[in-house]
Amino acid sequence: MVEGVAISIKDVSKVYRLYQRPIDRLKEMLFRRRSHKEFIALNDLNIRVKKGETLGVVGENGAGKSTLLKIISKTLKPTGGEVEINGMVSSLLELGSGFHPEFTGIDNIHFYGSLLGIPSSEMKRRVQEVISFAEIGEHINYPLKTYSSGMQVRLAFSVAMAVEPDILVVDEALSVGDLYFQKKSTDKILSIKDKGNTIIFCSHSMYYINRLCDRVIWLKNGRVAMDGPASEVTQAYETYQLKKEADKRSETPQAVPLPSHETAVIAIHNLILTPCATVRSGDDLTVEMDIVSLDDSVPYRLAAVLFRIDELRILGIGTKAHELLYGNRKITLCFPSIQLKEGTFYLRIHVMDENFVHKYDTKATEPFTVPKEGMEPGFINLPYRWTV
Length: 388
Prior knowledge:
Layout: E1 5-18, H1 22-31, E2 37-50, E3 54-58, H2 65-72, E4 80-85, E5 89-92, H3 105-115, H4 120-134, H5 149-161, E6 167-171, H6 179-194, E7 198-202, H7 206-212, E8 215-220, E9 223-229, H8 230-251, E10 266-274, E11 285-293, E12 301-308, E13 313-318, E14 329-335, E15 343-352, E16 359-364, E17 368-370
Parallel strand pairs: 3-7, 3-8, 5-6, 6-7
Antiparallel strand pairs: 1-2, 1-4, 8-9, 10-11, 11-14, 12-13, 12-15, 15-16, 15-17
């Protein structure tokens, strides 16, 4: 192991054998005839994690994230390659999987602690710390089967965090529990990060990934598609996801409404965004579009909604203050000196009736990225002044 390296993964692969029926496994053993298909979860993976680094892992379902974390946690063996771990590993993979429903909370603390490799004498010293963090009150003395799912998560997380690991592996553990406990859990993991421990963190929440991680790898089909700073990788991944969703929508045949006395066909054509890919805070952002109407007597209005890539709605505007529109029009929407912070965004344009109730057509622009230029969090710049 190279000095200063916590985890070294060299040419690691993991291949799962898939059988259609349980008996096929027995037939294969008896007749030496292949009866399975192979699924390659990881394919010649090479990753090096430094001591004290917080590495994020993102990717779609089936990309190999959980397999990678299980291999690092030593609960799964790779099919090929070498994995070197420098230090004690604690994992938050399947919270509560080692609990017994008939045991009390106290009993499960000791039982789960033993599964994590904590000596009994050490666990006794830490019991009060676990109980205090879990905050489940008198229920700690009752059988686990009387707990709600949220209480079980609290207890499991509290026991797992009682370990003081060199390397902490976390898989979606912050997406469970109520908002209060999610914040408490995040703060706990941040305290471990501040102590200089190594953390491997996997989540579908780009907020948590950007909040916690120094570096991120994007797994795709068992390989590393991208490796770099958190903001760059998450923006690229979110842009890919949005484009994939847009491609799916374009491949799905859409019913074309026919004009009638009750319904007029009004559509958006030629939606052009300028600048088209990268927008810096302070740039003029312009959207040009052609509105095509098959009935010049039907009035309409326009609305625009600015979204972050994770569907967070940032701003909604409309032409309510303008005169009603009729017929074919060329329309330009401009945001002068737009004050957005880092992130990936897009605009959704709607053609609606005069009351903003019925939608005639909706189209989204291509996503655009605002690069990181400062350390302050958030997604929009506002004028401010401190007075002390």
